[in-house]
Amino acid sequence: MTATRPDTRPGLRRRLATGSRAATADAWLVSRRRSGADLGLLALSAALLAVTVFLALLVPRLVLRSADHAVHEAVRSAGIGADVLVQVPGQTSISTTRDPNIASEAAGNAEEMSTNLPPTLRSVLGAPLTSIVTRPSVASGRDKDGTSHAVSTRLVYVPGQESQVRWVQGVAPASPPPPADDAATDGDGVSLDDPTVEGSAVDAPDHVIEVGVEQRAAAHLGLKPGTELWLQLPSRGQVDVRITGLYTAVDPSAPAWSDLSDLLAAGPAPDKGLQGRIAMLLTDESLPDMELWIDGRSFTEQQRFPVVADAIDSSETHAVEHDVRRVVAAPALVLPGQVSPPLVSTSLGDVLAAQDVRQAAANAQQSVLEVGLAAAGALALVLAARLLVTRRQTYLLAERARGASTVSVAVRALVESVPLVVVAAGVGAGAAWLVLPDARGSWSIAALVAVVAVLAPAVLAVLQVRTAWSGRRLPANRADRQRVLGRQRARRITAEATLVLLALGALVSVQRRGLLEAQTNGVDLLLAATPVLLAGAATVVVLHVMPPVLRTLSRWAAGARGVVPVVSTARASRAAGTAVPIMTLTVAVALMVFCGTTVVSVRHGQEVASQAVVVADVRVDGTIDPTAVERLRAQPDVTIAAAGRLWARSLGSGSALTADVDAVDAAPLAAILRAHGRPVDARLESLARPAAGNHVPTLISPSLATSAARVAPELSSGGGTVHLDVLGTTRAFPRLDSVRPVGGAQPANGEVLVDRATIDRASANPADRSKWVADTPPSATTITTVWVDGPGAAAAVHAAGLDHAEGVTVTTRTTWLAAVRDQPLSAALVWLLLGTALVLAAYAAMALVLTVVATSGERGRTLSALRTLGLDARTARAMTFGELAPLAVAALVAGSVIGIGVPWQLTRSLGLDVATGLAGTTTFTVTWLPIAAAVVVVLVSLAVAVAVESAVRRRDRLGEVLRVGER
Predict the structure, then answer these.
(1) Which region ranges are annotated with the description Disordered (predicted)?
(2) 358-369: per-residue pLDDT in tens?
């Protein structure tokens, strides 16, 4: 017979129930009583938490809202090029039957395309704009009065003309009436008048398509109702266009005319001998005639889906870009079943891709500031909790002496902190929603701050009572005691070394790959916390450096006169061992200096970018006549003007190397660069002096150095082939990006810098011209960029009429700089840095105040004792200031080093080019302003806190303080 084991589960449940009751008994009543006693400090902690949560939620929303504005602005700037254009090529048809449903078929295609577009892309596109357009051709003829006409034209059909145009003269185009007599047909019903049929009655009958012309364009070109022109397009026989009416657009700015400007006004003729360029309007009635008589390969059906810029959010750019790439790569998805697949073209994908890069950089910068703000706020909350526990130390130790467990102490602290944190965090979140209602953004950092606010009072209270009465004691044996203390030191050193190594690892990682996580294209919070980690590592260094420094000061104070140095250095040694106040101040100061240094670097980078792009006071881009340059140079208050041109060339016959050739006025350009204090390559002016054999001196980019050493480079110009005499390599090339070829151009292998006049002379020299172009007259380099410098540069450009010339863009350095600084992401980053610096200054002041209050009890007993010996209030304030000054100075030094070192090491990794407007222009710039601002904030806060504490201590009764001690 086996013995049965007694059931221990009821006893275990009783013990658990007893322990639970012991841990939670009267927790609510005790917490409520304590909260009433420390209501002011709890209100301060709640306000601090609410502000921190508010900032943690508001900062990313501000960046996202700025990114939204940046996307909208970028898409609007792209114009109609960002619209999704679907072109359905026409097919050759052998049908001789007029199809009156071609307009409705185009409308059906538009509806089908809208349905087949990917949903994300479709959500940001407007209703399609349908048009049927022929390729450009020449229409010529003679009126009855003998007036000759020859214009470049194309036929265009736009639906819905009833509400878009108003016919002011003549009538709207329609189908021309049939011939008066019936056309002869054969037995199969085929018209004998068809010129495509052998043996037709008329060898070349005329086919007429009725069209309309814009009223002012017609007057400009001398066209009128009744004018009939022969259209030179592949067709079934001779086709004439007959102008039946003149119209005006009801709303010239309507989207239907966005890419059909030649329907609204006449333009310059593309070739000599033509009067101008104009489009002729087809209607629903005349469109079938065009489709019948014109070869189908000569016209295209176009469906333009306009982009609704405001419908694209920054969080959707990647998805929209993916859909755009998909549609462009597989256009058959849009309109399946076609013999020839449609062609889809849009620049929207490129625009959004460029914006994604800018937004990624902005997110990285925002993450650094957000983590820094949260860290400073969390440390300030820890300081507030530390002060709260210090004020309750007597009660906590009494509870522990009466047998309270550490669990019960933690539970009572949590009962108090949890409702307070919930309310404060809710207030902060609600305020963020009221200021900027947006569901986007991460709650993780705000949640971490709330968790710190919940746990800090409980953890600090448990640490306060953990060793009281029942704590672990050191052995009496010296060797054992040293071994225990050695293990404690080893754990502390290990933790400190881990923090330092983690900070250094984060720094190295950010330097190598930036703040963006490569696999997810998101921000790595560990790397975003690099400045905070480095500030923590600096705190560790300060904690090890301050004791010997203070011992040295104590030895000096022992020989000094007065009691202030002795007492201050003695008490400072004790205050210096507190890590949390030093770390809080160090983090706040480091990020303050970081923000200030970054703002200065960004502003300086914007100045550098404006000088690199505009070069002079005014830059003019476009095809410019050389006489205009001479007129600019002759204008008053114009110091100098330089001209240039950029074009792509192959470096030698049979060579696979290509180069962007910068042909500039070398000497004037060098003078402009010197006038603006920019570095000038000493060999730049040498480009204007021809080398031996009349070769062209040149400077090349380093990427071409190896190839130029192997093969003598040469360029094919308008007059022939010229040989290049390479003087060396340089990186100081003028920026001519605005006139670079775009749209499928292959990137060049490097850049070549030559003098414009020198290469023109070399092209005109018969000895340097190729034999197969020996009879070709050389031509001067076409000027596409002019740099004008001087106080009257803008007025001179205006006087020359260049600011109103067609195809010419005038940019001043001040307007370019203002435009860059007003860009949404640039402005948001600068204001965010400045706002963060102000908030961190408040955190630093709060940390100092909390530190002064937390150490006021013991300091008050010391000062009260000294007051009984005759210590005056002024000396007491000096002692308090001297006690806390080393802590403040150490935090200022460590924070300033981190605040300057982080942007110095991470200038490239932070992606600050998003705010400068030009890649490679952000340079680390040091200024004393951020450090001075941090010093002023810390010293003023410390002085105010000392003065307030002195005023409070003045009301203390010395006898009670000495008898009772700390209250």
Answers:
(1) 171-193
(2) 888 888 888 888
